[in-house]
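quick one, 159 residues, struct below
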Amino acid sequence: MITPVVLILATGQLILTTSQRLARSIERARKLSDQFEELVRKEEDQINAEKKELLYQLLYRAAYRSRKLQHTISLLYVALSTFVATSISIGLLEALGILTLWVPVVLGIFGTVFLFYATILLIAETRIALAAVDVEMNYLVRNFRRDIPKTAEEKGEIK
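---
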């Protein structure tokens, strides 16, 4: 009964951190949406058009990221439920004196598969977040290179 409890704790921690990531992602999407609406109201020029394109790309990535995080949280809850069912089945089978070991084993395997898939989705989500930062940095370097401190270029931080 110890193994499912450890997996329950680990899954609970992943749910907590993923919920925080989802909240930040949603907040970022709302902020980008507000910036986009504000920019649409301004007069058109080259910088504004490029900034609108940037904000749209970032907003698209933030929405995609939020959907992926929501899917991940759903999988984590399924894994958590499966691990709880594993613990219950171990206790019930022991209390009833039934020597059916395959039930908790199958439940544990299913829970582990859901947990594994959720972690793969979390890796994909971090790649989406990093790609959004790359898009934003490329925009800033392309349009505001003259405003970047010389020390950043000398250190090789800006390419």
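Residues 2-154 form one domain.
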